[in-house]
Specification:
With 342 residues, the protein is mostly beta strands. 3% of the residues lie in helices and 42% in strands. The protein has a domain of 177 residues. The protein has 2 helices and 33 strands. InterPro entries: Beta_helix, PbH1, Pectin_lyas_fold, Pectin_lyase_fold/virulence, SCF-Subunits/Alg-Epimerases.
């Protein structure tokens, strides 16, 4: 969609050659710059406030000047993409036949959108680095149907659902098959003040590492990955996720939740520090293995070498009567359900 940034008439956009840089100021149209840029170009944003959504459908770098480059809701009266119409901020959109490859989003803030700050679908090798996504209605940063992504050193806070959400498809019941991300990495992010710090759903070949997840209603949800390659949750700090969030259509109230595995298979949870998560939700506690609402059991998951202390009602818990082959090995903890896992 055309995007007016700021007020008044649009200033002309600086031209660029393939692989070059295009500077866009807050009184210029960001969408026009994106539309005019050759694949491989870099769109450079200055400090200031840019109003409206922007949709990227080709290989580009969108680079701001840090947190003071801010993208917020707004319209210029032009046509909007479906993604923008849905209330998303930055949209990265490919197709099933031709995923958009090599998009990079760096060093900016996106805030206050009705749905999602950064929404990506059908992408390959997407990089979202040093982005602040805050106070968006649903997710801070979200991606589906995509491979080999890198989400690093971002901050997601105050979002209505998950700070970072990755899934096979966004529509919760549209597809039950686990999607192979071919090596997506979620690393070094700070997730605070959201309903859920991070959710990954029906994905394999994915690594979640070195993230700080604190001050949410729930820390990390890993939901229904089944036989599509390894999923590893390692070396994260997940502590004091003790905000209260009321029940939703799909979940009970959330409070005091560290890391939860729901209907998972062959997930490795290792070397995490999970501390002081306390509440009375069915999911409350440190590291929890929980049966899915669809009756899918947890199988052959390994929880080992974690520091899990001060969580209530338990540091470690298995709340899945049908689960089998799940292992708790060499964790430092004090309480477990059933007793004996510490």
């Amino acid at each position: 969609m055309p995007l007016v940034v700021g007020t008044g008439a649009l200033a002309p956009v600086v031209s660029a050659h393939s692989g070059g840089e295009r500077l866009v100021r807050p009184d210029q149209s960001l969408q026009a710059a994106v539309d005019a840029a050759d694949p491989g170009s870099t769109i450079v944003l200055t400090r200031g406030t840019y109003r409206g959504s922007v949709t990227i459908t080709k290989q580009l770098t969108l680079r701001g000047a840090g947190e003071q480059t801010v993208i917020v809701p707004g319209k210029d009266g032009g046509a909007q993409s479906a993604c923008a119409e849905a209330g998303n901020g930055i949209c990265v959109t490919g197709t099933d036949d031709r995923p958009v490859t090599g998009v990079r989003i760096r060093s900016l803030t996106v805030k206050g959108f009705e749905k999602t700050g950064v929404s990506a679908t059908r992408t390959d090798r997407l990089e979202v680095h040093r982005v602040t996504a805050r106070d968006n209605g649903q997710w801070g940063i979200a991606q589906d149907r995509s491979t080999r992504a890198s989400f690093r050193d971002n901050t997601a806070s105050g979002n209505g659902d998950a700070g970072i959400y990755t899934a096979n498809v966004f529509e919760a019941d549209a597809e039950s098959k686990t999607f192979d991300t071919r090596g997506t990495v979620i690393s070094g992010n700070r997730l605070t003040g959201n309903r859920i710090g991070m959710t990954t759903r029906r994905l394999g070949n994915l690594t979640v590492e070195h993230n700080v997840v604190t001050g949410n209603c729930a820390g990390v949800f890993v939901v229904l990955p089944r036989t599509a390659g390894d999923l590893t949750v390692r070396r994260n700090a997940v502590h004091e996720n003790n905000r209260y969030c009321p029940a939703s259509a799909r979940l009970p109230h959330l409070q005091g939740i560290g890391i939860v595995l729901v209907g998972t298979e062959k997930v490795l949870v290792t070397q995490n520090a999970v501390r002081d998560n306390a509440g009375d939700s069915p999911y409350s506690g440190g590291i929890i293995v929980f049966g899915s609402m669809d009756g899918v059991s947890n199988e052959r998951n390994v929880i080992r070498h974690n520091l899990v202390l001060g969580n209530r009602p338990a540091d470690l818990a298995t709340r899945d009567d049908k689960g089998k082959g799940n292992e708790f090995v060499s964790n430092v903890c004090e309480t477990s359900e059933p007793a004996g896992a510490c």
